[in-house]
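Quick one, tokens below. Sequence please?
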């Protein structure tokens, strides 16, 4: 399956997303997915489906803390999972649009 990606590596068509696609995107971005990654990715998909918008980083971290506790809802933990930009890579791997606050 050939994926259509934007110039930033996000899916052109979010309906193309699947866990297999997420795994392929992770490989392209040198991320080895663990259950901790999936927890955040699937949470973000649910968040976007519920609110129909992407939060900024501060709200993203707070939403993770509200759902999973402060141990996971903090910048240090999320930076460990998605080293360059937790919000950007969570959205990319979740098949969501590029967050407007990400460069």
């Amino acid at each position: 399956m050939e994926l259509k990606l934007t110039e930033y590596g996000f899916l052109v068509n979010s309906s193309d997303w699947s866990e297999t696609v997420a795994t392929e995107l992770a490989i392209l971005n040198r991320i080895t997915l663990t259950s901790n990654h999936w927890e955040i990715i699937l949470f973000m998909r649910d968040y976007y489906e519920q609110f129909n918008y992407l939060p900024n980083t501060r709200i993203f971290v707070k939403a993770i803390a509200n759902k999973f506790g402060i141990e996971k809802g903090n910048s240090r933990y999320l930076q460990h999972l998605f080293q360059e930009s937790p919000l950007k890579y969570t959205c990319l791997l979740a098949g969501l649009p590029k967050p407007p606050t990400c460069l």
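Residues 14-93 form a domain with the Arc Repressor Mutant, subunit A fold (CATH 1.10.10). The chain has a mean pLDDT of 93.
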